[in-house]
Give the backbone structure.
Amino acid sequence: EEGAEVRQRKHAQHRRSTMSYLRTLLGAPKEKLVHDPGEKGPEGEGEAAMTMLCLTYFATVGILIYEKFLKKKGESNEMVDVKTFAADAAAKAVVDGKTDANEGLTEDEIRDKISQEMWTQPAQDGTTPEFRAKFIKAASFGAITVDSTGPVRDALYFLSGVNYLKIFLIIFVFFNIWVFLLVLSIMGTSFKLLGGKDSAKMFDVVDNPISGVMIGILATVLVQSSSTTTSIIISLVGANELSVRNAVFMIMGANIGTSVTNTIVAMGHFANKDDLRRGFSAATVHDVFNLLSVLVFLPLNWIYPFFENMTYEMAKNQKVCEEDCVKTEFLSPYISPYSKGVANYDKKVANYISQGYCGGECGTSYTSTQMKALQKHICTNDGNDCSKIHKNFEGSWVADGYLNKKRAPAYITTDANGLATAGFSYTWPANKDANTYKAEKYFVNGTAISGALKSDTVYEVCGSKVKTGLCDKRLLKGGIALTEWEMSDEGAGTLLAILSLMGLCSCLFCIVYSLQTVIKGTAARVLQRVVGFNGYFNILVGMGITILVQSSSITTATLTPIAAVGLISLEDMLPLTLGANIGTTLTGILGATVVTSNPVEAWQVALCHLFFNIFGILLWYPIPRIRQIPLNAARFLGRMTTHPKYGKVFPLIYTLVVFFIVPSICYGIAVAATQ
């Protein structure tokens, strides 16, 4: 009876959540959607996510076995030889009295044309009169034949013409797209577990535009998410730990770093030389656009901070969010529970590291008057120089003329002269025996001690309200990786990175293999007409998709395999990528709408991200001649993958150099310079 009561209560809660969501869709006031994970056990999201991942592995192995051992000899899909295709096309043009359309095209361009023609050829559904007759007879147990009349015969005749394989493959494609989105989320979590603390530490050495860009690249690559990097940047700006001017350059770096995902995805086509060339070109056009935009706007904004000044004028009247501070999300609430069911990442730990709370954080809220009085005793030069109070001190600890209240120490200790300038401590002073010394209250009834302090005395300021060990907490805070597998942060990150990369390749393989049947013929021609309609329309399409999934990495990584097989041209891929760049800025804007402190600075960072991409599009896309610069650069990088000696390893070398080696060297130089 008790179990039935619990189930009824859970069902009622689920109905309330569903009705709340429906009311919101119908225009009712917005309510926070609460996810109900259900009871623990085999039906949990983590187990479901791993089951879906394993299904893609099994499907991939099954397809490979079929292609290798079971497929009939005559079913090969090998590409026609380029020279043969060109010769046949030229001969046909002579016979028809027309100009050869392939004249002047390179071999790569001809290969791309062949691939597109293969996609647009009518698909054969295999429905023959003999098959229809057998289907009707079998379905009616011999009572009806193809020559019969009546509604039953007509219904069976219709059903006999349905392409059940294509219906199954369409469902299979959507399933793999869902798993693909899930795998990208898990991969992001795995990289955060492996590099989350290191990436958070990087923000300490941002003191010039070059280091800002490089650290933005490296931090985004390590966590596989520009949204995460942008969120950290906004939190740092909101906490006065980072200036808006330096944050602008870090946003530029994050824009470059986020393109590493689709570059990795393109490597999954290494088995086919032409697919790898097209896929790598489609992936790197994102890289090239971002790199070129940074190359132009970094020195301009370094000379004069126009991004900072422009966005300040736009955001100077923004107020803090006081009610209904719920960030709007679209697909994330449905993917996130499954990803977190596998491994849940603690963002707070990274924020503690990036904001410098590794020593401790005071949990008591002091007034500015109290902090100024404390500052007089612990800082030198009559309280004006606090640089020596703690080894982790940074200039951002002092804001608006006084020490930040969260930086207040647990205890201060005076020397023989009654000075406390060297006695700042977040724990009980190591040189004082707790059994011998008894701490005196620094604030008595909310008022600080005035005048000189007693010599050789321990004063309690924040005391037990100081939270220590914040940076030593685990990054992994939930999911089956913690509760069931009992793994360490590094172990879980490594295992999930391997599983997610395998899942990424499996999903791409299954999607491309299925699309060869699903999007062939009419569907392929419709898709090509849609994306080939207008470049500016493609920008809107890319922006809309990215706003829906709230990740440019997901959008470009999903489009890359479609471009790799020749269904989307590089000219159509570029505006889709540009739209994705604009769409991903919505994450920062939505985050800025719910900030509870420093809203102007948060909006500045979010708007800088938006206008950096808009100005980049206005610079590189409208004029056809200038548009060819990123396109030709991407084509060159794609051709490098066809090099007979090092073509297969070029994508890996490129990724390591652009996204790891160069930023790491610059980061090392920045660290050495600050020390």
Summary: The longest strand covers residues 411-413. Confidence is low (pLDDT under 50) at residues 21-33, 74-80. The CA atoms of residues 221 and 260 lie 7 Å apart.
